[in-house]
């Protein structure tokens, strides 16, 4: 009985943190995991709802200036095949030349990559790393909240992802509510001020359909003697459709008010009164105008079709179906709509709506003409997206380049950043990974990760630093402020995860482990 | 639900012209027909045939293949003969028995099937909300030594075929939760019934080693804030519960032994709970301690030593910190965290990738496991592969998912390598078994050829050409 009660309470705690009813406690729990407060690098202020307006192309790092020449590598370009014994010349953070026998200036950094492989930096199209809060689940429509306000560039998981070759990520809200909040697309410039991580990517917004939205609807659990939290509408997929329709309708009305006002202004009507600003509807107006990408968490074929239909009715295109695990069942419909799908390679069975997920889905959708990317949605999995891509050659027979694109060019296209990154082409940012073997081999690992020609991960340096870090740690442990009052040594802090749990159970986005 | 409504309305329209008996008969037959229709709907998509559940028995010869025996040297171009469920012959030049089904192995490699000791296969279909009717991993209460995975395993779980077609042929399926979770079953991933699958119905006892500040596996997380003194007391109380259970079992067994030896002595009433513990209390069968932190691992080993148990560590996140200790006490580790994030913020990024190589270097007996309940157990080779890219040799990585787990669970003489007389669990691939791009071309479990189909290949075939 006690155990049962404990289970109920623990489930309730989980549910509450999902729904955001106790957002503070959820935040506190996450906060415990990090020593550094989130305030280190506030992003520059912008007008609400317009992420792009003040964003200039990121200023290039000043350190390590000069050319970078990577020599004699096997270069997997993601656009034009694999080049053997090729050189890559990087100038001002951009790929200046790709070929053989390239020469660089005398002060160039030269990397001999003989016997090694170079790929474009991996782009993770679904991540919750580098955030201090993920769900604002108290309302069903929270389009006004922004990931950039909880952006934490000190998150160690970013460095770990860099060590797996990730150079950019789409940082999204969780899936507690139908319309979540505004995303943030960032380069993983760990160690640099947060503002430098942003590079003018088109803004987006998270939608969510299906089980997680239903589940985080509070009130599904009865705790004897405890006050019942209010139930939040909707609790069915029917209600989810209606919430989206209602929100988009209100946004359309709001847009008309502004259109009318601007028309009156342009007619010279000096008495025209501007509509009252609505921070919830502004981003949705941008959706209607095609200026803000919809990235919608979705699983079942039925709910995906619902969203595609409603988008077509309102005259915009869904940019990506996130997860989209049953996308293979409606691949032709998704292709016709023009949505991308950002999915898992082969993760399945962790809830009912993931039960029909198959690892062949990426291949089926790719062959149907859908732009497909493979994402992590998990700080652990983000470190091995190369292997997830490799699996897709086995499951359904994608070519090596098609498989590589799942984690490079395709997510870049889905995020509208393919002009900047996602492939090894002259003129693009030098976001590059050097692998000690074929990137699709389980026996390979990342040697170096570059963003815009700057080195953000280097295995040799990492190993070299360990002695120094060990010394520093020991000194800190001996330091007087770190001693327990009794003089007994203080146990090292843990990250707050349950030891022994699988990384997939890490409650990264506040859904109790699986808000994917 | 819709089905029964429909049946009712059909039955209602018929009711006026039929007597009660006939109505009942029709009702029943309609119900049977519906159930059959559902079953057919599931099977029809399947082209799976009877071999899907039990494989095709026979004599087989895989000829002209590269053979990675794991136990000995690789054979560049050799033959493996399978007969009566066993490996009948293996070598560069062996005679193929007359009438054997020949599999041309040119360009292919033969490996022993992989083994994962950290699963709950068959006890759980869908891990999260919405399908609790399909979850049988955890009993109520803290002390359930007589709760056996064997009785909960669903041989028709879709995970079984999904897992085996990637080359994992055998798993230990364990109950979870409480302090003593129950007993694990060591099963082949083929068979229509649990008895057909089982290699050992009660292969190990699973104990969640009590954590300081924890609740013994389940529930600890939410009570982590209690004062340190209380937490230690609780841990000691839980250890005392296990100690008492083991000692009671031993006393019970001694009383039974005495009664057996001397008919004049009173025989204690049979007690199924104590009885289920005897083999473990006497160190005849292994006790698996789920333990992650260094202090828990050391604690579990000392506790096992005190009670003369035969311990295995499951989890083992920080086992590498206690590697010399584990070697000294000769305790094996089932490592489940190769792909987990480091647990501390200032840990090296590759701390878990490297831990297998550290255990190996220290001479600790170890196996690599996914630690997953069921769905992603098929990823086992990639866990081993990651360890191999961070210090472990490729040979050791392969052993860590074949021979070593077989040895740890006490089946090293029957499984885990390609040797004459062993159970013919074989995987024939077109490349390195641990590589993600490698395809499994043929699969044998218990010497039976197993079709390479699963829920996933079936759905693939249903939808791949949809326009």
Give your account of this protein's structure.
The complex is a heterodimer of chains A (516) and B (467). With 516 residues, chain A is α/β, with parallel strands linked by helices. Chain A has helices spanning 2-19, 23-32, 156-162, 211-215, 237-266, 282-288, 301-314, 331-337, 361-367, 385-394, 400-405, 409-414, 459-478, and strands at residues 68-76, 82-91, 94-99, 109-112, 117-120, 122-127, 166-171, 179-182, 184-187, 204-208, 293-298, 320-323, 340-343, 372-374, 432-435, 446-451, 454-458. The longest helix of chain A has 30 residues, at 237-266. Residues 1-63 and 494-516 of chain A have low confidence and may be disordered. Chain B is α/β, with parallel strands linked by helices and 467 residues long. In chain B, strands 1, 2, 3, 4, 5, 14, 15 and 16 form an eight-stranded mixed sheet that branches. Mean pLDDT of chain B is 89; it is low at 1-46 and 215-224.
Termini Cα gap of chain A? 33 Å
| pLDDT < 50 runs, ≥5 residues of chain B | 1-46, 215-224
**Rg estimate of chain A, integer Å:** 24 Å
The number of helical segments of chain A is: 13
Structural class of chain A: alpha/beta
State the shape of chain A: globular
- Give the DSSP E fraction of chain B (strand runs of 2 or more residues): 15-25%
Q: What pair of chains forms the biggest interface?
A: A-B, 70 and 72 residues
The first-to-last residue Cα distance of chain B is 32 Å
Described by its quaternary structure, the protein is: heterodimer
> What does the largest sheet of chain A look like?
8 strands, mixed
């Amino acid at each position: 009985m006690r155990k049962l009660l404990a289970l109920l309470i623990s489930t309730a705690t989980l549910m509450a943190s999902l729904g955001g009813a106790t957002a503070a406690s959820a935040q506190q729990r996450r906060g415990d995991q990090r020593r550094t407060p989130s305030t280190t690098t506030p992003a520059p202020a912008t007008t609400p709802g317009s992420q792009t307006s003040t964003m200039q192309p990121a200023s290039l790092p000043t350190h390590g200036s000069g050319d970078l020449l990577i020599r004699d590598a096997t270069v997997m370009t993601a656009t034009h095949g694999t080049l053997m014994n090729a050189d890559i010349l990087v100038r001002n953070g951009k790929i200046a030349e790709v070929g053989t026998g390239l020469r660089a200036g005398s002060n160039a950094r030269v990397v001999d990559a003989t016997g090694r492989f170079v790929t474009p930096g991996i782009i993770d199209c679904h991540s919750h790393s580098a955030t201090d809060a993920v769900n604002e689940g108290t309302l069903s429509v929270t389009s006004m909240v922004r990931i950039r306000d909880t952006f934490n560039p000190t998150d160690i998981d970013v460095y770990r992802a860099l060590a797996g070759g990730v150079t950019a990520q789409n940082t999204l809200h969780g899936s507690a509510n139908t319309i979540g909040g505004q995303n943030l697309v960032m380069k993983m410039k760990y160690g640099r001020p947060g503002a430098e991580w942003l590079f003018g990517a088109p803004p987006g917004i998270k939608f969510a359909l299906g089980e997680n939205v239903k589940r985080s609807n509070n009130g599904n659990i009865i705790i004897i003697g405890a006050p019942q939290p209010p139930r939040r509408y909707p609790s069915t997929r029917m209600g989810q459709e209606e919430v989206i329709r209602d929100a988009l309708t209100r946004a359309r009305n709001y847009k008309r008010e502004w259109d009318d006002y601007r028309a009156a202004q342009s007619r010279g009507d000096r008495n025209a009164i501007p509509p009252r600003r609505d921070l919830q509807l502004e981003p949705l107006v941008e959706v209607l105008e095609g200026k803000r990408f919809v990235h919608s968490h979705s699983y079942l074929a039925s709910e995906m079709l619902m969203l595609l239909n409603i988008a077509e009715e309102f005259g915009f295109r869904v940019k990506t179906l996130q997860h989209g695990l049953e996308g293979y069942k409606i691949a032709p419909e998704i292709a016709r709509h023009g949505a991308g799908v950002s999915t898992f390679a082969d993760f399945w069975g962790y809830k009912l709506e993931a039960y029909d997920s198959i690892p062949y889905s990426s291949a089926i959708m790719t062959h149907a003409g859908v732009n497909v990317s493979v994402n992590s949605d998990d700080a652990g999995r983000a470190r091995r997206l190369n292997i997830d891509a490799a699996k897709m050659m086995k499951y359904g027979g994608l070519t090596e380049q098609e498989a590589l694109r799942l984690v490079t060019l395709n997510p870049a296209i889905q995020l509208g950043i393919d002009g900047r990154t996602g492939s090894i082409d002259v003129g693009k940012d030098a976001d590059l990974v050097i692998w000690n073997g074929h990137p699709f081999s389980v026996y390979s690992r990342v040697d170096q990760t570059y963003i815009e020609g700057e080195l953000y991960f280097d295995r040799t340096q990492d190993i070299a630093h360990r002695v120094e870090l060990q010394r520093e740690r020991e000194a800190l442990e001996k330091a007087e402020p770190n001693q327990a009052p009794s003089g007994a040594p203080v146990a090292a802090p843990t990250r707050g995860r349950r030891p022994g749990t699988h990384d997939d159970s890490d409650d990264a986005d506040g859904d109790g482990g699986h808000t994917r | 639900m819709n089905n029964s409504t429909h049946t009712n309305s059909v039955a209602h329209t018929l009711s006026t012209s039929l007597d009660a008996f006939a109505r009942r008969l029709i009702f029943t037959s309609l119900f049977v027909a519906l159930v059959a229709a559902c079953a057919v709907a599931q099977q029809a998509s399947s082209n799976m045939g009877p071999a899907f559940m039990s494989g095709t028995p026979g004599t087989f010869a895989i000829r002209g293949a590269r053979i990675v025996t794991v136990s000995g040297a690789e054979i560049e171009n050799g033959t493996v003969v399978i007969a009566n469920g066993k490996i009948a012959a293996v070598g560069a030049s062996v005679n193929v028995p007359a009438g054997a089904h020949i599999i041309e192995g040119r360009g292919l490699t033969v490996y022993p099937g992989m083994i994962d000791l950290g699963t709950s296969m068959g006890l759980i279909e869908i891990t999260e909300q919405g399908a609790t009717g399909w979850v049988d991993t955890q009993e109520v209460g803290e002390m359930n030594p007589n709760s056996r995975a064997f009785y909960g395993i669903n041989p028709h779980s879709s995970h079984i075929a999904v897992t085996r077609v990637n080359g994992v042929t055998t798993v230990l399926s364990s109950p979870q939760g409480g302090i003593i979770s129950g007993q694990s079953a060591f099963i082949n991933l083929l068979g229509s019934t649990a008895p057909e699958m089982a290699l050992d119905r009660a292969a190990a006892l699973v104990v969640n080693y009590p954590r300081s500040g924890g609740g013994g596996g389940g529930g600890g997380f939410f009570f982590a804030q209690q004062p340190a003194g209380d937490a230690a007391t609780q841990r000691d109380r839980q250890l005392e519960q296990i100690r008492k259970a083991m000692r009671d079992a031993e006393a019970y067994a001694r009383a039974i032994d005495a009664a057996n030896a001397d008919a004049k002595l009173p025989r204690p009433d049979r007690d199924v709970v104590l009885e289920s513990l005897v083999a473990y209390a006497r160190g005849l069968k292994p006790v698996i301690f789920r333990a992650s932190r260094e202090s828990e691992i050391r604690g579990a080993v000392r506790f096992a030593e005190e009670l003369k148990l035969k311990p295995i560590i499951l989890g083992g996140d920080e086992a590498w910190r206690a590697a010399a200790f584990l070697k000294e006490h000769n305790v094996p580790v089932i490592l489940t965290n190769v792909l987990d994030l480091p647990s501390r913020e200032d840990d090296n990024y590759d701390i878990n990738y490297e831990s297998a190589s550290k255990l190996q270097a220290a001479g600790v007996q170890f196996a690599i496991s996914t630690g997953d309940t069921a769905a992603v157990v098929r990823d086992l080779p990639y866990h081993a592969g990651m360890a191999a890219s961070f210090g472990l040799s490729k040979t050791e990585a392969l052993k860590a998912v074949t021979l070593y787990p077989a040895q740890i669970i006490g089946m090293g003489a029957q499984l885990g390598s390609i040797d004459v007389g062993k159970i013919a669990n074989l995987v024939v691939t077109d490349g390195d078994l641990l590589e993600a791009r490698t395809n499994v071309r043929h699969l044998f479990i218990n010497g039976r050829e197993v079709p390479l189909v699963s829920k996933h290949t079936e759905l693939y075939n249903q939808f791949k050409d949809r326009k």
